[in-house]
Amino acid sequence: MFKKILIANRGEIACRVMKTARKMGIKTVAIYSDADRHALHVKMADEAVHIGPAPANQSYIVIDKVMDAIRQTGAEAVHPGYGFLSENPKFAQALEAEGVAFIGPPVGAIEAMGDKITSKKLAQEAGVSTVPGYMGLIEDAEEAVKISNEVGYPVMIKASAGGGGKGMRIAWNDAEAREGFQSSKNEAANSFGDDRIFIEKFVTQPRHIEIQVLADTHGNAVYLHERECSIQRRNQKVVEEAPSPFLDEATRKAMGEQAVALAQAVDYASAGTVEFIVDGERNFYFLEMNTRLQVEHPVTELITGVDLVEQMIRVAAGEKLPMAQSDLKIHGWAIENRLYAEDPYRGFLPSIGRLTRYRPPEEHADAGSAVRNDTGVFEGGEISMYYDPMIAKLCTWAPTRTQAIEEMRVALDSFEVEGIGHNLPFLSAVMDHPKFTAGEMTTAFIEEEYPDGFAGVTLHTVDLRRIAAACAAMNRVAEIRRARVSGRLDNHERHVGEKWNVALQDVDFDVVVSADHDGATVMFDDGEALRVSGDWTPGDTLAKMVVDGQPLVLKVGKISGGFRIRSRGADLKVHVRTPRQAELAKLMPVKLAPDTSKLLLCPMPGLIVKVDVEVGQEVQEGQPLCTVEAMKMENILRAEKKSVVAKINAAAGDSLAVDDVIMEFE
């Protein structure tokens, strides 16, 4: 077995690999860029080597720099993680030439399956059902438009060397094909150093279901069942689960056997994933094979008990797989939510900055449930604009899907993140969505259910009552503390009343709070009484309450006259007032929001790639105004209505902060 391995990656996957290496008694080497000097993976490793400036194309994907780090440290093997050099055959060849083991598949398999065009052709030759498309290389945007018309809209424009949603666009017409081709080409060149593009038919109403395979160098190969990855945004997975709520046993077996046959056809050895599109009739079509560890591998580990990273290391060291197909049963259900540094209230645009608070839920595992959080950040750390915006992968496991979802709801409510925009409210909303809970989602789920973006969650009256009761009880605790403050005037004892008005989400409740040693009973004016108990002290940012016998976790912030409460995807201002205060509050004028309708504001911190208009130009609704790049993604900002450009405040190459004014309109 290896004594020292280098992890040619960063962030959560580098930390994940290090955990297994430590468990196996293997020393680890981290590599880091300028931006990652104080990163968690650097702190976790036994050794760390600096490899260059912040941009990945000057550090993490420069093969010579990684090879230098290997020579400096004497690492015997390299785990590439995912992204960066994980599917680059030149890197695997460089390691082979140096006599260093690659913890991944053979070069031939990477070349055959890592390139989407080649893998499609091989799959077709092997008799695997594939999606119609054009497999050749495409020279320019006009050829892309011609091919798109031949294949038939809608089409998917994809980077041949792509992954992680980078270099992908869906086009529904000629204009989108032309625009998407150029954006995909640019993103592919920046992210992978390879700008080759291909086009395939976009299958509407599909599910994205993938099979995890594991093979050794002795001819053994197994599949570790499937992962449902249909909930995606911009072709990037957001929620994954294992197994799929859609597959039956026959389809699962057929997909698994086909995935293994495909792996064996290219002499695959290591962990890999065969991705399929599955339609409503459970017909499945080969999409691609990822010749690396997938981001979402933890859900497979949770339902099978197999440590995939450990098996990758053992296969690379020449060991045989310790399990046969018959040993791999499905135990319970696992769900993964990807926590991204992106603001769901601003169209999910990237958000960067310092994590002023980062408190994940406590990890645990027992026979009844499990919570796992794979992360590469820490409180006080910085989210950089240079890399993928993923902060953490929160996973839950339970014996059934319903229980696993409930575990996830509580875990999301318990996850505290401050300082940046993040998608925790959106993830909570998905966990409560009827289509998700019924297991009836497709890859169009987010597009269909949130066509106008995410504007927060509107809670049902039952949930509002539970929160109102909890806040009334919490407010009483805070009022008692305030009443006992030192320095009071003599003979001016302050009495904390029992009658209160709780206002939240445009409704208010008159309540009577009767407290005792074990908690409080909150009586509503219609006669309903809710019993409240729990663990909260004024100043705590997390309240773990029990309301009417059911757990309720609230993130708590202080506002004038009440609390800022976040729960189940809702962000609420909860005012708890005396009856007289409530009466007066209704007379207060409503503050109007500032008018920004004549301004184009930068929606996230980023770099202006190009400006498409000039002063005095008339623009139409939907017309591109400028392109902003952030976290390796190009974002085209468009006109919301017909107007005339009055002033342009930014030019290509400018770095802007969120809400900086890019241009003004007449």
Q: What distinguishing features does this structure have?
A:
666 residues; alpha+beta; 9-stranded antiparallel beta sheet
Word description of this protein:
This protein has 666 residues and is of the alpha+beta class. 27% of the residues lie in helices and 34% in strands. The protein contains 17 helices and 40 strands. Strand 26 and strand 27 form a beta hairpin. The relative contact order is 0.08. The mean pLDDT is 92.
Secondary structure layout plus pairing:
Layout: E1 4-7, H1 11-23, E2 27-33, H2 40-44, E3 47-52, H3 63-73, E4 77-79, H4 89-98, E5 101-102, H5 107-114, H6 116-125, E6 133-134, H7 141-151, E7 155-163, E8 166-171, H8 174-192, E9 197-201, E10 207-215, E11 221-233, E12 236-242, H9 249-265, E13 270-278, E14 284-290, H10 297-304, H11 308-316, E15 333-340, E16 342-343, E17 349-350, E18 353-354, E19 357-359, E20 364-365, E21 370-375, E22 382-383, E23 390-398, H12 401-414, E24 416-418, H13 424-432, H14 434-437, H15 445-449, H16 461-483, E25 499-504, E26 507-516, E27 519-524, E28 529-535, E29 542-547, E30 550-559, E31 562-567, E32 570-577, H17 579-585, E33 599-601, E34 606-611, E35 618-619, E36 624-630, E37 633-638, E38 643-648, E39 655-656, E40 661-665
Parallel strand pairs: 1-2, 1-4, 2-3, 4-5
Antiparallel strand pairs: 6-9, 7-8, 7-9, 10-11, 10-13, 11-12, 12-15, 13-14, 15-23, 16-17, 18-22, 19-24, 20-21, 21-23, 25-26, 25-32, 26-27, 27-28, 28-29, 29-30, 30-31, 31-32, 33-40, 34-36, 34-39, 35-38, 36-37, 38-40
Helix pairs in contact: 4-5, 5-6, 7-8, 12-13
